[in-house]
């Protein structure tokens, strides 16, 4: 059954309901989900500043499929914008990787040099 979510509180109540029905304590769920107990408490109490990505991960972990229902007239625009956003993200990530690799090479070279004098 589809239940519209219009607030963090509604998402939090859904997560709390599913977690409790599964017999999972809040601290145990937080630990296995890789979030803090405080994050879970904030979410389940509807704190508006919780991170959306984590909320979606927790819903997935509980077997909840989140569906965005768009007007038919907006689906093509959405898909186009999503493709652009994914390309931008991939481009940013590929630019970060060489910088990270250079940094680790410098550290490795520095470490090798330090060991050479021993």
Automatic annotation (TrEMBL):
Lineage of source species: Bacteria, Pseudomonadati, Pseudomonadota, Betaproteobacteria, Burkholderiales
Residue intervals passing through the bilayer: none
Region (Disordered): 87-118
Official protein name in the record: HTH cro/C1-type domain-containing protein
Biased composition (Basic residues): 87-99
Domain annotation HTH cro/C1-type: ranges: 15-70
Pfam families: HTH_31
GO molecular function: DNA binding
């Amino acid at each position: 059954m589809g239940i519209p979510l219009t607030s963090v509180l509604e998402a939090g109540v859904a997560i709390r309901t599913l977690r409790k029905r599964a017999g999972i304590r809040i601290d145990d769920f937080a630990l296995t989900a890789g979030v803090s107990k405080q994050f879970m408490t904030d979410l389940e109490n509807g704190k508006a500043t919780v991170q959306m990505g984590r909320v979606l991960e927790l819903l997935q972990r509980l077997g909840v499929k989140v569906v965005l229902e768009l007007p038919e007239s907006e689906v093509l625009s959405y898909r186009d914008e999503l493709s652009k956003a994914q390309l931008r993200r991939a481009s940013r990530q590929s630019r970060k990787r060489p910088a990270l690799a250079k940094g680790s090479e410098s550290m490795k070279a520095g470490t090798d040099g330090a060991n050479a004098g021993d």
